[in-house]
Amino acid sequence: MTTVLDRHFAPLQAALDLRGYRQQLLAANMANSDTPNYRAVDLNFTAAMRAALSGQGAAPALKTDQGGQLQPAAQPEPAAAFVAYQAGDNVRLDGNSVDMNRQQSAFASNSIQYEADLTFVTGKIKNLLAAITAN
Question: Above 50 in pLDDT, residue 51?
Answer without folding.
Answer: yes
